[in-house]
Design brief:
Helices cover 29% and strands 23% of the residues. It has 304 residues and is α+β, with helices and mostly antiparallel strands. Bound molecules: adenosine-5'-diphosphate and magnesium ion (MG).
Length: 304
Amino acid sequence: MSEILMESNYPWPLFKRGKVRDVYQMRDCLLIVSTDRVSAFDVVLPSGIPFKGWALNQLSAYWFERSKSVFPNHFIEKIDDRGMKVKKAERIDIEWVARGYIYGSAWRSYQRGERTMSGVTLPNGLQLAEELPEAVLTPTTKSEVGHDVELSRAAALDRGLVTVEEWSTLEEATFRLYDFYKAEALKRGLIIPDFKLEYGRVDGELIQIDEPPTHDSARLWSKEDYRVGERQEAYSLDKEFLRDFLLRIGYRGDGPPPILPPILIDQVSKRCVGAYKVLTGQATLKDFKLLSVDQVLASLGIKR
Ligand SMILES: Nc1ncnc2c1ncn2[C@@H]1O[C@H](COP(=O)(O)OP(=O)(O)O)[C@@H](O)[C@H]1O
Ligand SMILES: [Mg+2]
């Protein structure tokens, strides 16, 4: 299990290889295999992360079981440590992003003076990582090539990605799922400030597909260590830690991606396993010796 798996090889026809998951056609279903690949800025990095695929698979199965009463999803069963059988859907090419706090790209726009976010007016005076008056849906395109860009309701309808009814159903579903996941995470001492979901159509019905909030698809902050006005990476269990490290060593997604140093790989692995164990109540954040990006850089002798 501790062996790093960069590419799986299951005895089913390959449906697609995503950045992180290998998807197979298993009769009329799909088999989703979570590998140990990690991506940042939409680029798959050359280093694998021990236990990442395992942790993603366990956490996804756990969430899908629990959230199915909120909105139906594709999960059928877990078939092994890394694999789960799911309903095959016609994917809707939209990333349904919901934000309850201002951070990341939303914060960068706000800092530039932008006061609307996907059509919603934001108050002046917000600080980094501050909770928004109410959650905002900030959908983007889901494209196979290139980066995802902001997508308005009008543009989504115009491009025929969804019908008017589907948009309303999925907008509402995203807020409902956000409330559900956020409340569950809070019970475990984590804040989900934002996340992204995907949906698809199966036999005329809409279902949630892909993955629920994980290390890769959501931000996961420590409630105890949360401070408005500050960056949250030191104790967060999501991918922002890796992105921040990469930015600090000068990698922004262009050119060949760097090989990650062992200490960084270990820290990302702890965050993946941590996300699973903390969200499922099997461990607390304190059980993981998390380092901040500054500490990692210092131990590598890299000056900022
Ligand atoms: N139930 C499903 N039906 C069809 N496609 C799915 C389903 N669940 C996930 N997918 C797709 O399978 C892929 C999963 O692999 P992933 O590594 O997440 O890819 P990506 O590089 O697109 O993020 C994604 O493209 C996702 O949209
Ligand atoms: Mg994905």
